[in-house]
Amino acid sequence: MSEDNLAFRKELVSLLPRLRRFALALAGRTDLAEDLLHSALERALRNWSGFQADRRLDSWMFKIMQNSWVDMRRAEARSPTQPFEDLDFEGEDGRQTIEQRDEMRAARAAFANLAEEHRTVLALVVFEGLTYVEVSEALSIPLGTVMSRLSRARSAMAALMQRATFAKVKKQN
Predict the structure, then answer these.
(1) Which fold has domain 1-78?
(2) Which tops the pLDDT comparison, 163 or 81?
(3) 20 to 30 A Cα–Cα from 62, which one of 13, 18, 145, 156?
(4) Could you tell me where in the chain the CATH 1.10.1740.10 domains are found?
(5) Are 160 and 110 contacting, i.e. CB atoms less than 8 angstroms apart?
(6) Which residues of 86-96 are buried (b: 16+ CB within 10 A; e: fewer)?
(7) Selection from 163, 128, 83, 99 nearest residue 155 by Cα
(8) What band does 79 get if pLDDT is binned at 50, 70 and 90?
(9) Per-residue pLDDT reduced to its tens digit, 131-169
């Protein structure tokens, strides 16, 4: 194995937590996210010689993952994404924990109901902390499109969360 290939593999391994998080953001379910991650890693390892050293590996991998996700969706005609698994929250009393879980369920459902292009941009900016320019490069879309999609995603999330809150209050009364 060449020194370049070894360095590439080491950097790829260091990206695994971020890649898992992005796969889960795209797929919404752990089983699909793992399939997506494996597919993207396989493509990257098979085509590592096509990686340009002057480019960021994370951007290259996010693009591969997005393309793999599109391919998986086309090939398997999957149904819309499902919410993430429940997370545990610590609180002083049961009410606080229940409220936090309700809020997380609403946020996960709102995120899952976003259009795929909005979900992708939001995940890269919010979860991965990429700049708008980095997202533009990773997804091969204009900077204005990144900003537009992000704005629409945030607006849609706010509207969906507001509806969930209103429905909860209405149900309680």
Answers:
(1) Rna Polymerase Sigma Factor; Chain: A (1.10.1740)
(2) 163
(3) 156
(4) 1-78
(5) yes
(6) eeeeeeeeeee
(7) 163
(8) very low
(9) 999 999 989 999 999 999 999 999 999 998 888 777 766
Share of the chain above pLDDT 70, in %: 85
Task: Identify the architecture of domain 93-173 in CATH.
Answer: Orthogonal Bundle (1.10)
- Residues 31-59 as b or e (16 or more Cβ within 10 Å = b): ebbebbbebbbebbeeebeebeeeeebbb
- In the chain, CATH 1.10.10.10 covers 93-173
pLDDT, average across residues 79-101: 58
CA–CA dist 163, 23 (Å, integer): 27
